[in-house]
Design goal:
heterodimer, A: about 550 residues, alpha/beta, Rossmann fold, 3 domains, six-stranded parallel beta sheet, about 35% helix, globular, B: about 160 residues, alpha+beta, Alpha-Beta Plaits, 2 domains, four-stranded antiparallel beta sheet, about 30% helix, binds thiamine diphosphate, binds magnesium ion
């Protein structure tokens, strides 16, 4: 039976198990929207295409499924770009469908034309421009395969409006066969043996764990490995939750705003076992002085990530879960009791601290959210100080609990991502830890949350500043606060109310607990406007370009 | 260091921009790039000559492998290979130097493909050394234009 391209698209998406699409309509996707009108796929109309991309991303990170978003040609597609770049940097599986002008107009500067495959090439894992409706079903099948396997990422399918109307038989291939794409899953046995030998001989080993462990579902294997070896674990921002944050062998996050004990442990170690992490510059600090005495074992599915920034002694290309499975088999426990004592001492000596006085401090707000949600909420974050405090003061015991833009650091990410996460996990409590700057970048999604009855809670740590930038200006630019003061504007309570959501303003420390409890009782989106200390800083901090044990503000 | 890399890719539109974009995004200058269909019409072969340090080139090879449309990457620098390039060179000629130019071309087995009263177009095929020396020798006669196809290369194995 012949079907239109638009119908084929939706049928192909259904075959991939797609339950929800985030998007925004326009002239070049009218045929698709016409099919969506009576399809049983849930469609969430956001108020900006960037919101749709971030929501699809939040949905994907919370559930492990592929997120799907749709936008029209030209400005619709370019509005998606920040969201797609954000997802791709953090290896989040997304299939983005963009409308395109009619095939014969492509290249003519037609109305609402943009070279979408050209624009998205450097920010996606792959992209397609579909010129023949007969290719569409296979392209969709391949797109989901590419987005979700290997190192996951974004696939863009650019679909000219005439191809959406043309008809073809719907044949979706049973198996994917892309000859240029065969990701390696199993690690090299010889390398794994060498790694295990190094581990058995090590005296000061540390596990350095990234988002790859969460993506590959390797948390249980990691836990087993740590149980057997007692090697302490530090994680990247995206790795938080891969190993229980409350475990005695957890060192929390490392790097620029990591814990002092994690950074000391890394610097003093004689063996770093990196799993699904990529030695980002926010983690390594000054690269020449990074962990000078350590041998490095690096497990990653992406060969490009290995030996890119640091020299690796034992590279293992493979899926973290599959490699760790080999690791736990008859692993010898290294003799590290002295090292563990040292690590324990650092933990005692350099705890994460902030001033515990009567003022309303942002760290306290997060500690209270942690306590009241019993550490079980899904936390999304915006970017800036709010993000770092959310990483430091909420303890993540489970994978997929923290959802944050790590690689790109996109302000405006957290709120739409929270909407996507809540749709993917309707039974969970979802909090967006926000800044007063970031939240304004996608504040329009309040309409999406209200109208779709998505009860996300937004905790705005309102410091009246672009706080993280202000912090750098304070420390490195002689307190010259150049264009980082936001003033108390807008009135977030009124904004929430204008959209039909609930707004609560909290100006006193004593009111924090009750406000959070009240917000949780409301089955609606809630904006919580916490007026926190304006000039609070995130500590410890490794100044840019320094070795990671050269921290400021680490001591009590 | 110069490297000659052969890349087998899917023969469809957009692939070239994926490959070349990868180089430009890393600030890599491509010395030459030649593309053509292979014995299998669904596969194209690119021969790319790039300059860069070992570490970056290693990264580029990995990145190329990561592209979905790339089927295979062969680093020819690591093996024994045959390479050829074709150049067209226009030189100024006059009655005095004509015979000398003819003689040099003859020695290099180059062909004179077009002659005007004051210029000649010469075609030469060869490996990099041959082409380099030929151009050097012709320089004093006044080269007005050079067109090169870029290197193509094939492993001996
Ligand atoms: C889209 C975007 N623009 C600019 C930046 C640079 N930037 C990083 S943090 C920050 C300040 C964020 O302010 P706010 O949301 O209020 O968070 P705070 O640091 O005050 O907690 C800025 C401007 C960014 N990360 N993303
Ligand atoms: Mg702020």
């Amino acid at each position: 039976m012949k079907m239109t391209g638009a119908k084929i698209l939706i049928e192909a998406l259904k075959k991939e198990g797609v339950e929800v699409i985030f998007g925004y309509p326009g002239g070049s996707v009218l045929p698709i929207f016409d099919v969506l009108y009576d399809s049983d796929i849930k469609f969430i109309l956001t108020r900006h295409e960037q919101g749709a991309a971030h929501a699809a991303d939040g949905y994907a990170r919370a559930t492990g499924k592929v997120g799907v978003c749709v936008a029209t040609s030209g400005p619709g597609a370019t509005n998606l770009v920040t969201g797609l770049a954000t997802a791709n940097m953090d290896s989040v599986p997304i299939v983005a469908i963009t409308g395109q002008v009619k095939t014969f107009l492509i290249g003519n500067d037609a109305f609402q034309e943009a070279d979408v495959t050209g624009i998205t090439r450097p920010i996606s894992k792959h992209n397609y421009l579909v010129k023949d409706v007969n290719d569409l079903a296979t392209v969709i099948k391949n797109s989901f395969h590419i987005a979700s396997t290997g190192r996951p990422g974004v696939v863009v399918v650019d679909l000219p409006v005439d191809v959406q109307i043309h008809e073809a038989d719907f044949h979706s291939p049973e198996k994917v066969d892309i000859r240029g794409y065969k990701p390696t899953c199993k690690g090299h046995i010889g390398q794994i043996k060498r790694a295990k030998k190094l581990i058995a001989q090590s005296q000061k080993p540390v596990l350095y764990v990234g988002g790859g462990v969460i993506i590959s579902g390797a948390s249980d294997k990691l836990f087993e490995f740590v149980k057997k070896t007692e090697i302490p674990v530090t994680t990247t921002l995206l790795g938080l939750g891969a190993f229980p944050g409350t475990h005695k062998l957890s060192l929390g996050m490392l790097g620029m705003h990591g814990t002092a004990y994690a950074n000391h442990a890394i610097q003093e170690s004689d063996l770093i076992i990196a799993v699904g992490a990529r030695f980002d510059d926010r983690v390594t600090g000054k690269i020449d002085e990074f962990a000078p005495n350590a041998k490095i074992i690096h497990i990653d599915i992406d060969p490009c990530a290995i030996s890119k920034n640091v020299k690796v002694d034992v590279p293992i290309v493979g899926d973290a879960n599959s490699v760790l499975q080999e690791f736990v088999k008859d692993i010898k426990k290294p003799n590290i009791s002295k090292w563990l004592k040292q690590v324990e001492e650092w933990k005692k000596k350099y705890p994460l601290i902030y001033k515990k006085d009567s003022r309303l401090r942002p760290q306290y707000v997060i500690e209270e959210i942690y306590r009241i949600t019993k550490g079980e909420a899904i936390i999304t974050t915006e970017v800036g100080q709010n993000q770092m405090w959310a990483a430091q003061f909420y303890k993540y015991d489970k994978p997929r609990q923290l959802i944050s833009s790590g690689g790109l650091g996109t302000m405006g990410y957290g709120f739409p991502a929270a909407i996507g996460a809540q749709i993917g996990c309707p039974k969970k409590v979802v909090f967006d830890i926000a800044g007063d700057g970031s939240i304004q970048m996608n504040i329009q999604e309040l309409a999406t949350a209200v109208l779709n009855k998505i009860p996300v809670k937004i905790a705005i740590l309102n410091n009246g500043y672009l706080g993280m930038v202000r912090q750098w200006q304070e420390l490195f630019y002689k307190k010259r606060y150049s264009y980082t003061k936001l003033e108390p504007c807008p009135d977030f309570v009124k904004v929430a109310e204008a959209y039909g959501a609930v707004g609560i303003r909290i100006t006193k420390k004593a009111d924090v607990t009750k406000a959070i409890k009240d917000a949780l009782k409301i089955n609606k989106p809630v904006f919580m406007d916490f007026h926190v200390e304006p000039e609070e800083n995130v500590f410890p901090m490794v100044p840019a370009g320094q070795a990671i044990n050269k921290m400021i503000g680490a001591l009590a | 260091m110069k490297k000659t890399i052969a890349v087998l890719v899917e023969n469809h539109f957009g692939v070239l921009s994926h490959v070349s974009g990868l180089f430009s995004a890393r600030g890599f200058n491509i010395d030459s790039l030649a593309v053509g269909e292979t014995e299998d019409p669904t596969v194209s072969r690119m021969t790319i000559v790039v300059d860069g340090d070992e570490k970056t080139l290693e990264q580029v090879k990995k990145q190329l492998n990561r592209l979905i449309d790339v089927i295979k990457v062969i680093d020819l620098t690591e093996e024994d290979f045959i390479d050829r390039e074709l150049v067209l060179i226009k030189v100024g000629v006059n009655s005095k130097n004509r015979s000398e130019i003819l003689q040099i071309s003859d020695t290099f087995q180059a062909k004179i493909v077009d002659v005007k009263t004051d210029s000649a177009a010469i075609e030469l095929t060869g490996d990099q050394n041959k082409i380099k020396s030929f151009i050097e020798i012709l320089k004093p006669f006044g080269i007005t234009e050079i067109v090169r196809t870029g290197r193509i290369a094939m492993g001996r194995k």
